């Protein structure tokens, strides 16, 4: 009797090759290309590659002092298909499908250095308390002509002109790239990525797409990871780049990944909803947890050298540790709307994050606050940039130190993952220090 994965391939004879891919700590897909006719072994028994592959730096190199490399003989992990199943890859010329996978030890226990397992461990803790997080993300990105050394907005396919200006909420800007966005939504449809509203953002050539909420936080992270992979490939087919780089242009706002979440109890009730605009004590406890962990989590929300160019005052990227009702200058925003939809918007993460790690840090911190019944400071009013607030680290080195030395993060992240990520970022920091800003941009433009 065939498995569902085998049946899928049999029903799609046009697919001649597959990609088996897992997310590394930087969110880069790592894996193998396999001819479809030889895929049975992968589909039924998984595949293998070194555990160190999920802990490579941004250039794809081994981490020199990683315990995963020579210390353990560069041991293999077992990679098994996730519950996602096959996902078409419509940005490639030949019909191809990706099979998302994640890593386990030989005895079947999860590999703690796998970012998908990090998120799954947090979700399991919610489930053990009879709780279910409901998650949605908003992803900002730039369309960029990088064919010369100077980054520019792509030439409009309709007019043949290049409009080098920010166009916030502009329908004209969306229509100028209608062919691209039409292909993007068609790709999301066949990949089961719930892409909703698209808007033109405040940066030059910048757009945002909302992914619909899901009561499966792993799927929400999968959707964001697959979306980033897809849109970068699809843009190249249209003759330009799509980049989630935090700050490609010095004079324009950077790109974020805003995460919205609420929490349901085992009866399906939103535990943040008290019938009014202020929300429940549980809402405030979750906010407190997010704020108390945000400083030490900055390396996850701002993982690259370029990330810190985004975290500057009055650039639509909140860095002050505060919360507010319906206020986008705050790091934590409680949006207005129907009480049944009361939720938290976490606004600190850049578009260059690993979605699995970002959601693990956000949901893990919120659960910590709920478990401890932590109380947040009073909500702010007005412009957060004008207030005297504690802040996230403003540079990469400080963020690495805070992450590595944190007493808070081990409550919801595995020590092995914390060590691996810190080692990775220290190696990248040394490498980036040798490069010019232009060389750094060239690395980040396609990778993050």
Task: Please provide a written account of the structure.
By secondary structure, the chain is an alpha+beta fold. It has helices at residues 4-11, 40-45, 115-128, 171-176, 178-191, 217-237, 281-301, 307-310, 355-372, 396-405, 415-432, 437-447, and strands spanning 17-23, 29-35, 47-50, 76-81, 87-88, 96-104, 132-144, 195-200, 206-214, 241-243, 257-264, 323-325, 332-334, 344-346. Strands 7, 8, 9, 10, 11, 12, 13 and 14 form an eight-stranded mixed beta sheet that branches. The protein is globular, with a radius of gyration of 21 Å.
Detail the poorly predicted runs.
Answer: none
SS strand fraction: 15-25%
Count of helical regions? 12
The first-to-last residue Cα distance is 41 Å
Note the main sheet: 8 strands, mixed
**What radius of gyration results from the CA coordinates?**
21 Å
Count of folded domains: 2
Task: Give the ordered list of helices and strands.
Answer: HEEHEEEEHEHHEEHEEHHEEEHHHH
Question: How do the strands and helices of this protein lay out in sequence?
Answer:
Layout: H1 4-11, E1 17-23, E2 29-35, H2 40-45, E3 47-50, E4 76-81, E5 87-88, E6 96-104, H3 115-128, E7 132-144, H4 171-176, H5 178-191, E8 195-200, E9 206-214, H6 217-237, E10 241-243, E11 257-264, H7 281-301, H8 307-310, E12 323-325, E13 332-334, E14 344-346, H9 355-372, H10 396-405, H11 415-432, H12 437-447
Parallel strand pairs: 1-6, 12-13
Antiparallel strand pairs: 1-2, 3-4, 4-6, 5-6, 7-9, 7-10, 7-11, 8-9, 11-14, 13-14
Helix pairs in contact: 3-9, 5-6, 7-9, 7-10, 10-11
